[in-house]
Amino acid sequence: MKTRVWTVDNIVDKQQIYPQIQEAAEWLRAGEVVAFPTETVYGLGADAANTAAVGKIFAAKGRPSDNPLIVHVANVAQVEAIAAAIPPVAKTLMERFWPGPLTLVLPKRAGTVSERVTANLPTVAVRMPDHPLALALIEASGLALAAPSANRSGKPSPTTAAHVLADLNGRIAGVIDGGPTGIGVESTVLDCSGEVPTILRPGGVTKEALSEAVGRVEEAVGMGDEQTAPKAPGMKYTHYAPKAPLSIVSGPPSLLQQLVDESRAGGKTVGVLTTEENKSRYAADVVLACGTRRELETVAHRLYDTLRRFDETGVDLIYSEAFPEEGIGVAIMNRLKKAAGGRVIRE
Ligand code: AMP
Ligand code: MG
């Protein structure tokens, strides 16, 4: 299969649907899979009601079939069509955070989205992306789009169309290239199907912001911990991993440098993931700065690209600095720990 690339301007006049978007929308209606930018990462979309189309997502990604997909919508009527009910808490959050990086898990309306999307769960995960091209595509297709991140399963999520093509060229019908994504880590997944809203995956919307809007919010047991039984089915899989083994070092730069020195003495080629503030403090084979600590949003924005850049350097192993687990830092550390397979070296 030859993968079509539609290059479009990121700033869309909402009244004007570009011919490229129309064509991509037609392909989606015909049951093809198309990658598109969102404000978090690139998604790989298919008609959520079409089981064969959804099957192409799992095939292209190599995604385990028990890991359900998020359904992307452009209006609340689409949510009402696929959810059996929208609890008051969910309504409040939709008004406050949509469009935006918040996914809500709601009771599913039977016979709407494909069972492959929801992995036979009684719930469905929905979100409205805050990206003009994503919204234009959903509107032009008239479909709710099931869309996981547009990477091969296990790899870092794509934040550019080039990342999508590196993983999926020849495996998907097309990709809309709308430039780099903004936030850089995926949406927060919040389960609203029970008594107390529960974060299943930390992401672009912080726990603090959610609590401010609706009061009590819990975190799923084992949210960042691979050993505990997962509530979000996706939590149990290895994710975001660069080719070289990655370890997080929780301690001062001197400790990280000591580990680098030991590994290099053992003949290894070593990479360091740090930030602009600290990059001159390390002597290693490859030192990559991922944003600045002063603004953790810049770290989130650059994280997956930085992990992918290590793949091109051929290092044998990577040591990463740790980040404060507050605000967006919770999502950054959640992704880093998964990329590291849980390896955290402490002082
Ligand atoms: P991705 O599509 O790669 O961003 O991952 C989607 C995340 O949402 C995974 O962690 C899924 O397990 C989670 N998810 C999707 N649908 C549901 C659902 N119905 N219930 C709980 N978690 C879900
Ligand atoms: Mg993903």
UniProtKB/TrEMBL annotation:
InterPro entries (alphabetical): DHBP_synth_RibB-like_a/b_dom, Sua5-like_dom, Sua5/YwlC_C, Sua5_C, T(6)A37_SUA5, TC-AMP_synthase_SUA5
Function (record text): Required for the formation of a threonylcarbamoyl group on adenosine at position 37 (t(6)A37) in tRNAs that read codons beginning with adenine.
Catalytic activity: L-threonine + hydrogencarbonate + ATP = L-threonylcarbamoyladenylate + diphosphate + H2O
Swiss-Prot/TrEMBL keywords: ATP-binding, Cytoplasm, Nucleotide-binding, Nucleotidyltransferase, Transferase, tRNA processing
CC terms in the record's Gene Ontology section: cytoplasm
Name of the protein described by the UniProt record: Threonylcarbamoyl-AMP synthase
Start and end residues of each YrdC-like domain: 18-205
Similarity-based family: Belongs to the SUA5 family.
